[in-house]
Write a structure and sequence with these properties.
With 733 residues, the protein is an alpha+beta fold. Helices cover 50% and strands 16% of the residues. A hairpin with a 2-residue loop joins strand 18 and strand 19 (688-697). The chain is elongated and about 100 Å long.
Length: 733
Amino acid sequence: MTEADYQNSPEVVHHVDRAKGNLISYIEARVKGIDTELIKKAVEFAYQAHIHQYRRSGMPFVEHPFEVTKILADYNMDSTTLVASLLHDVVEDTEIGKKKVEEEFGAEVAFLVEAVTKISAVQMKSGRDRQAETFRKMLISMAKDFRVIMIKFADRLHNIRTLGYMKEEKKKKIAQETLDVYAPLAHRFGLAKIRWELEDLSFKHINPNEYKMIVDKVIGKREEREAYIRNLINSMKEMLGNAGMHPKVYGRPKHFFSIFKKIKSRKCQFEDVYDLFAIRIIVKEPSECYRVLGLVHGIWPPLQARFKDFIAIPKSNMYQSLHTTCVCPTGKPVEIQIRTEEMEHTAEKGIAAHWAYKEKADPDKTEKENKWLNQFMEWQEDLTDSAEFMDFVRVDLKTDEIYVFTPEGDLHQFPRGATALDFAFSVHSEVGIHCIGAKVDDKMVPLDKVLKTGCTVEIMKSDAQNPSRDWLRIVVTPKAKNRIRRWLTNEENVKSIQLGKELLYREFRNQKTPLEKRGNFKPFAIEYEVGDWEALFEKIGNGEVTLGAISSFVGSLAPGKSKGMLNRVLMKKDKSLKNAVLVSGMEDTLIQFASCCRPIPGEAIIGYVGKGNGILVHRAKCSHGVKQAKDKERTIPVQWNADVQQFYDVFIEILAKDKPGLLYEISEVFFNCGVTVERASIITLRGQVRNKFKIQVYDIKQLLHTFQELKQIKEIKSMIRRPTGAQIDAKGT
C-alpha cells in the first residue's frame, strides 16, 4: 500500500474524523464561551497542514496537537490559546509560515505559535547549553504572555506520554530534561497535576526498575490500603457530621516519583513509607479550615513537628492548605490536608486557575508571579555561562522552602539552605552589601548561618563593610549571588580605572609632558578608540593597553622632551628565543621555553628534544623538566647566551592589605626597578587585595631585586611567581 493509499484508506479517514469530533465535544464540555467555529476552522487547518506527517507510532501527526489541545481544555484556557495549541507545530514542521497563520487566525494566535516555535528551535552543541537556553526562552516568553508556557507544558506532557516509541537513549535524554526543567517550573507555577505526571513518566523512563518495583507494590496491596483509608474517611465524616459539618472528604494517593524520593531521602524500604495516602478535607470558607483542624486534633493526636499552616503563609506558588499528621486509631500516622474549594482549585491548576489575560489582568492575583518573573528577567541577563545559569535556576525552583520573619513581623521565603546573608540581600541590596552579621532570635550569628523556618532575623550592617568573593560561597539565592557579582565587577572596574590613571600620569610626569598635551584627550580618543578619560584609564589598568604602548604614545606627543620608560630601559623585547639560549652542537634549532616553568636568565636550565616542537627549555628544578631529563637520549646541554639581552615574561601574584594608593606604590617599584608591566588585574577580598601582574624582566637578578623592593611595602603579605607556584613571602625569597 502506498502512502497516499494509506492516508486515504477508510480506516484512517474514519479515525481522523472521529478524533476531530471527539476533540470538539471535549472542548465544548469543559470550556465555557468557546468559539466553536474558530476551533473547527483551526482543527481542519491543522489536519491539512500535517496531512502527510505521521508519528513514530504510525498514527497521523495531527493527533499530537489534538491531544495537546485537550490538555489545555482541562485548564479552561481561552479560544485563542486552544487555536494556537492546534497550530503550534505548523510553522516549525510544515511549509506554512507565520504570515499565513496571522492571515487566517489573527496576530495574537500568530504570536503564540511563533513564541512556542522559538522555544522548540533551540539548537546547541552542549546538552546543558541547550537546556539552559530552552529554559531561558520559556521564561522570557512567559514574561510576555503566560499562555506560551501553558502550550509548551501541554506539548511536553503529551510527548512524554508517548515517549515509548523513541529509542532508549532518546527516551532518557527527554525524560531527564523534563525532570530538570519542565517539572520544577510546573511546580513553580502551581500546576500540580502536570508536575506529578511529568515526574512519574520521566521516572518511568530514567529508573525503569525502581518505577516497576514501586508500581507493583502499590498495586499489590491496593485493595487492603483502599479499605484502610476508606475506614478512616468514614470515621472522619462521622466525627465532622456530629459537629454539624459536612465537607467533602476523600483519599489522595501519593504519586510514584514522590514515593521514590521519600525512600531515597529517608534511606528506607517501601514498607517503611507510611504516608502513601493523604486524607483531604474540602470546606467552604477559610475559617472552617481551622475549625476542622481543631476537631481532628481533638480525636486523633497530632505529631507537632509535622503541622504546617500554608493558609497563613502560602507557598511561593500560591498553594494554600493546612497540613497535619495525626495518629489514627490503628496507631499509624496519616497525613490530613484541609483547604477550601478555591484553594483546591488553585492547588490543582496553579496560576492557570486565576490568570487573567492582558486587559483583564488582576494585579493583586498576579503580583507574586510578576515579581518573580521580573527578578528572573533582571538576573538572567548577567548570566551567560550555561552551568551557572542552570545552578541559579535549580536553586530558585527548589520545592523545599523556609519561612523567616523580620523583627517587624514581615515574612520572607527562601529555598532550604539559605543563610543570614541571603536574608540581608532580600531586605535590600544595600543592606546585603554592608552586612557584617545578624541576630537570629536575638542571638548574634555569622553571615553563613543557615536559617530555619520560624526564626526572626535582624541584620547588622556597617558602611565600612563590602562584599568579597568568599560571599559567593555563602549565599544560595540568585538575587544575592547576582548583586554580589555585580558589585565585585564594578569594584574591579574602579580599581582598574584607579591603576590606569596612576600609570598614565606617572608617564606624564616622567616624560615631562606639557600641561596642554596632558589635557588634550582627542589624540588618545583616536589612538585607543575610547569615549572618555575613564574608559582609557580602565583599558590601561586592566592591561588592554600595555604600559609599553602608552609610554611610547605619550613620548610621541612631545618628542625630545624626555625619554620614556621603554627608552630608559636599554634592552628591547626580542621574541627570538633562538639567540637567547645556546644549544651544544646544534644550530638553527627551534627553541621553546616550557610553559610549566618559564625560565629566565640566571636560572639553571635543562634542554629536552621534543617530538616535532624543537627543544623545550625548562628550569633545572622544574618537576616536569626533571621527569623528562630521565630520558638521557633526548636530554641536551643548553645555556644562556650572555651576549643577548632581552625581556622575558613573568607572571606574579601579590596579596596585600588594601589601602588607598597601594597600586601606585607597587607600580612605582616596578618603574624604579626597570620592570615593564604588560597586564594587571585586581580583586578585592575582605579588606585584602589580590593583584595579578604580567611583567617583563631581563634576568633573575632583576626579578629578585624587584621582590626585595616590593617587600618594603608593609601591606604586602605574600608574592607568588606563576605558573611555578614558588611562593616568595614578605620574609624572604
